[in-house]
Amino acid sequence: MATQSSTPITSSAPTIGLRKNGKNWHPPKSAFRIKAGQSTYAKRLEERKATTTMKAKEKEMKDEKQEERQRRIQAIKDRRAAKEEKERYEKLAVKMHRKRVERLKRKEKRNKLLKS
User: Fold this and answer.
1) CB 78 within 8 A of CB 72
2) 113, 97 in Cβ contact below 8 A?
């Protein structure tokens, strides 16, 4: 007959006893280990390079968007200015002769070119 040993087979995990403060419902805590600064220098350089390229791309996109916005604003301003000038000449045409208004237009155009 084979005899069995009286030692029970136990798992390799250590058993944890009761807490001293009595709060056994809380999960057990591990020791505080600082994880910052644990990455390698090459990895940090790679991350910096990636962030700088990303920021450059974002800045480029932002600048393009701002440029497009300014272009649209300038087009609107130019249109309004042309409309106002046209209305002003129409008001003058009501008071004066058509040919005199045309002469005035040409004269103002010359002055405008000289100023700019």
Assistant:
1) no
2) no
